[in-house]
Design a protein that fits this description.
- Pfam families: HTH_3, Peptidase_S24.
- It comes from Pseudomonas rhizophila.
- The chain is an alpha+beta fold.
- The chain folds into 2 domains: 133 residues, lambda repressor-like DNA-binding domains (434 Repressor (Amino-terminal Domain), Orthogonal Bundle); 132 residues, Umud Fragment, subunit A (Ribbon), CATH 2.10.109.10.
- 31% of the residues lie in helices and 24% in strands.
- The protein has 8 helices and 10 strands.
- It has a 10-stranded mixed sheet with strand order 1-3-2-4-5-10-6-7-8-9.
- The protein is globular, with a radius of gyration of 21 Å.
- The two termini are 29 Å apart.
Amino acid sequence: MTKKRILSPDRLAECEAAHTLFLSKKNELKLSQKKIADAAGMTPAAVNLYFKGINPLNAQFAAVLARMIQEPVEAFSPRLAEEIRSMTSAPVVREDSASYSVGGTAADVVRDMLSRSGKNLSEDARRRLLAAAQAEDGGGVIELDYYRPGVVGDEVWIAHYDVRAAMGGGQIPHDYPEMLQDIRVSPQHLREMGVEFKEHFHLKMVTGWGQSMAPTIKHRDPLLVDISIREFVGDGIYMFSWEGHLYIKRLQWIGDGHIKMISDNERHQPLEIRADDTYIQARVLLVWNANLV
């Protein structure tokens, strides 16, 4: 099976371009992911998900990032630059780029950006970024694969993340999680089963790893998670980063800025951790058990 990244190629190119520009400016401007996160009102882990190409860039984050790195939004996302322009009717290109002012095409701006700041981008990223700009100009069509209609009823595709979320001592997540496979499900059927979610494209599959959440979650059980939940919203099972490792555990609020991390058996004792040091990535909604009979 051919591996496909979680985001479509144009969205990945935007993330890669944004990350490259950040790295090229961080020393000069004394920037860090935490400073970007503070300015954007989010956690450093959330910023990292943008830079790693796990989450697509949005206009709000793009505007903050552009201001922090002192580059125009076009430098990494002509799509979002146009979105911001349509909302504000304000120029979002350099003042010194007179030839590529508001009236210039997105492809022209990207070509200019690549000639000035794109030397660290891979050829594939350069190609994808330019293709995305040309699509914005009406010169092509970008295929988005985060939603593909099923062949029956309301079925949709849900991506499977190539990460092992530990139900024990913790796993160090991959730098670039990819889809191992897709599954086809019916959102209506999931809701009838009691699974609560706002949008189907918030749903992803991950694999639990370890024994500490048995019998609720067994080793290698596939899990349906909602990646739109990035903060504690009540007692439950979450996928979260803590001290550089990725876990799946029960979290229980105990007050005074602390959370209790709980396993479902006695292999690991409950642990009290600081909420500020816990970066929630998703909430587990469903265990896809495969029980032998």
